[in-house]
Design brief:
The chain is of the alpha/beta class. It is built from 10 helices and 23 strands. The chain folds into 2 domains: about 80 residues, Urease, subunit C, domain 1 (Roll), CATH 2.30.40; about 280 residues, TIM Barrel (Alpha-Beta Barrel). The radius of gyration is 20 Å and the shape is globular.
């Protein structure tokens, strides 16, 4: 099956056409392709053809909780293309290490799902600071002892979030990083110097920057500034207008640069669903349609979708839709070392979206197959 996309292309210079053959982009250029297509997708004026979005932190969506098992992860894979997400990391918040290992195995078994690509598990915890635990249960937190790290390392998750100031956490970060697992700092009370040591040990990502960590103070900058200033670190940003103020998102881009900011939804099963009570790794949370909280008012993930985040970022001073799209595609692909994803280029994976003039998803293609099309 050959599909030709014509229209404004994200990140492809003067080219205005993309040819997809099978699961791969085989040609990017102007005018007619070298092979006759079976189908054409033409972007209307004001629309843009972009790489599919990649979400590094998906707890759930549309009533499905990632922690509920293989069927829920498969349902997420089927549902997320409607939001332009073509690849994601199912995420589990703090649980006993054996549960985390089982979750990683379940996610691995779901990697052949036919919707959005399942790229591996994100295990958020249990090696977190109790004082910055947010919606994580205190009883599920643990220290990164060598024995606990053995269990997580053997499970081969794609990304692990930990608090680097915990006893043994720097050694854990070094071990996990050496094993090829992306190590993130999050739910942490670390100071600036502890943050620098964490980066030296192998931390390369910041889970929901600013949230569940000390604020940046001019005399006590904390780990957040260490993560922002180091060019080796990419920071995850929940740009939903609730977790981080839009002006702080603007400041973050000026300090960090767009190449090291990855939009992450941290969405729960309440995202894409009406207000009500939902589950976050089995724990009840309440959504008003915009914000998700525990019953005590603690923020507990988000109800946002990736287009919501792209839309907010695109409207910031000095930003554009094209730059905002990169934060949801090229940057998270780089975090995971996925060279075939997040870009429009010959040889890249045929994961594409078409966004309309209102920055809504009109069409999503994954592996060369249309998985979502907005009804006429």
């Amino acid at each position: 099956m050959r599909t030709l996309f014509r229209g404004a292309l994200h990140g492809a210079g003067a080219a205005d056409s993309v040819l997809v053959e099978g699961e791969v982009i085989t040609w990017v250029g102007r005018g007619d392709p070298p092979s006759r297509p079976d189908e054409e997708v033409v972007a209307a004026p004001g629309e843009i053809i972009a790489p599919g979005f990649i979400d590094l932190q998906v707890n759930g969506y549309a009533g499905h909780d990632a922690a509920a098992g293989a069927d829920s992860i498969a349902a997420l894979s089927d549902a997320l293309p409607a939001t332009g997400v073509t690849a994601f990391l199912p995420t589990l918040i703090s649980a006993p290490v054996e549960v985390g290992a089982d979750f990683a195995a379940t996610v691995g078994a779901a990697s052949e799902a036919q919707g959005a690509r399942v790229l591996g598990a994100h295990i958020e915890g249990p090696f977190l600071n109790p004082s910055f635990r947010g919606a994580h249960l205190r009883a599920h937190l643990a220290e990164p002892t060598p024995e606990n790290v053995d269990v997580i390392e053997a499970a081969r998750p794609r990304l692990v979030t930990l608090a680097p100031e915990l006893p043994g956490a720097l050694a854990a970060a070094e071990r996990l990083h050496r094993s090829g697992i992306v190590v993130a700092a999050g739910h942490t009370g670390a100071d600036f110097e502890q943050g620098r040591k964490a980066i030296a040990a192998g931390v390369r990502f910041a889970t929901h920057i600013y949230n569940a960590m000390p604020p940046v103070h001019h005399r006590r900058p904390g780990i957040a500034l260490a993560l922002l200033l180091d060019p080796r670190v990419t920071v995850g940003l929940i740009a939903d207008g609730e977790h981080v103020h839009a002006s702080v998102c603007e400041q973050l881009l000026r300090v960090k640069g767009g190449g090291r900011v990855a939009l992450t939804t941290d969405q729960t099963s309440a995202a894409g669903a009406p207000p009500g009570t939902y589950a976050l790794s089995g724990r009840p949370v309440v959504s008003d349609g915009r914000v998700v909280r525990l019953k005590d008012g603690t923020l507990a993930g988000s109800a946002a979708s990736m287009p919501d985040l792209v839309r907010l970022m695109a409207r910031l001073p000095g930003m554009s839709l094209s730059r905002a799209i990169s934060l949801a595609s090229a940057v998270p692909a780089r975090v995971l070392g996925e060279r075939g994803l997040g870009r429009i280029a010959e040889g890249a994976c045929a994961d594409l979206v078409v966004m309309d003039v209102e920055m809504r998803i009109r069409l999503t293609m994954i592996r060369g197959v249309v998985k979502f099309r907005q009804p006429s």
